[in-house]
Predict the 3D structure of the following.
Amino acid sequence: MPLTAGTRLGAYEILSSLGAGGMGEVYRARDTKLDRAVAIKILPEAFAADTARIARFEREAKTLASLNHPNIAHIHGLEESRGVRALVMELVEGEDLAQRIARGAIPVAEALLIARQVAEALEAAHEQGIVHRDLKPANIKVRPDGTVKVLDFGLAKAMEPTGVASPSVSQSPTITTPAMTEAGMILGTAAYMSPEQARGTPVDKRSDIWAFGCVLFEMLAGRPAFAGETTAETLAGVLHHEPPWAALPSETPADARIVVSRCLEKDLKQRFRDIGDVRLALAGAFTSDAAAAVPRPAVGALPLWRRAVPVVAASVIVAAVTAIAMRLQESRPALQVSRWSLEATGPTALNVNGVEHDLTITPDGSRVIYVGDRGRGIFVRALDNLEPRPLVKGTATLRSPFVSPDGRWVGFEEDLTSLKKVPIAGGPAIPVAQIDGILRGAAWLPDNTIVFATNRIAGLQRVSAEGGKPATLTKPDDARNEFAHHWPQLLPDGSALLYTALARTGGLDAAKVRLLDLETNRSIDVLDGASNALYVSSGHLAYVAGATLWAVPFDLDRRATFGTAVALSNQVVTTTNGAGLFAVSTTGTLVYAHASGFDPLARTLNWIDRQGRVEMIPAPPHAYAQPRLSHDGTRVVA
């Protein structure tokens, strides 16, 4: 039953139609109770009339509603009003992948970034025993900020008639008949069905992995892996033919080719068994000589930069611990070096996304504190222990842990609204203050106050660790080209703070490390073109510049650097907002996340013509921003 603007369904007011979805008509609506925008999907009348089916659907919907992941569109509830049954869902702005691919193949780096987020969504669902069963480009949306949202999770199963144990082609919720489809159009979701779905045999998570391979192939090639003018032709391709491997662009990395090939194995025993393995493979974790066996077009040798195109936002979970003084003063006695790694997958895996600073170390250098479980847990890992210990667990998003000077407390941010602390020995988390935004660094001072920054408040703020209302400590100076102050760090005598002044123009190359005298409240410049500086007991500042971790001698009395900076490592994960995923204890122990191919800033340059076709410019991925074209169209500056 078509609805018009202004129609009310219980607490929801219809605003406009969003078109037909795979399971019914979809509308933009407003939740009048919570005053938020939602999507309303009207269930088919034939479905709504089947009481047994509705009961089964409600049971499935409760399970689906339990999914809580940033890359999964949430189900808010079920609504029934005047004989109309509807599913209330998160409203996701932006275009879906089907619309995006219709304009042409997606550049490799962008496609792999999207693929990784889709894999993370599938992994979260599979861990809850939920299989999507209808994954396709039209069910994947990319928001304007680049966040990927997978829609209609598990609804294929939820929509099944009661008693159906396995799907057939006719039971697929979005397969259409020839009478419902325009001539020459690929029918329904046949192009993304796994061979076992096409045969009508039972489906498990490996069918999602097949569909994932189809989606990744289509993003890279700009055309489906299996296509036909009728359902029968399309399914025949799924069952008996290989994808057109030559359609993959020549710059597709070997890791991505392996992923597509193994996802599209018709033999279940040869296909990836777990989407978590797919995510790791996209990061190059399993690269071997097997890459030579992956089908690829016959092309000449690729330039080195094209064979080494980094995967944007690749999974990075390896941490290394070493004594920083060894690299700085060779005259000192050799100090012990220890190296270990955190889990690559699962709830204890280090959270690395290229934005948050989710790793720190206790002042005595004995324990590492980090965020894991996809942002839902904080863990403590003693350097002499093989297993991490959960410190904070829950459904909220946790970020940016930091430690008190005595090492007894860990502070952190929760859900953009709360600054909290928890005893490092274990116990309940205690609220400290209400804050606005995501933490961008925090320093716990000896006087039991906390200086912190957020992404929404431009300057540094200060609050008692016992609780209270934050007070403004600094304000960016427009005359100095500043727009935000981040990453505060205390000097050992407690008299001054180091912080990063991010520039309004010029990017991170124009950022400055500044020093704030806590008695006079005056600031001075310490380093240009640098960010996230920490004082090291060897008498150095460790800082990030040009995606590299550096150290330079620092005179505490004069509060000035001297001598020559030394590069400690160019394999430390660096974020898009000027932080390095590293921390230093007062004993000189450095902990950092090893980049292992991670490059959150890597972007490609592309031509887009007036028809929307995209062609990659043959230039290596880099931190490009604000491109400008010459008048004659032959050169670009970025």
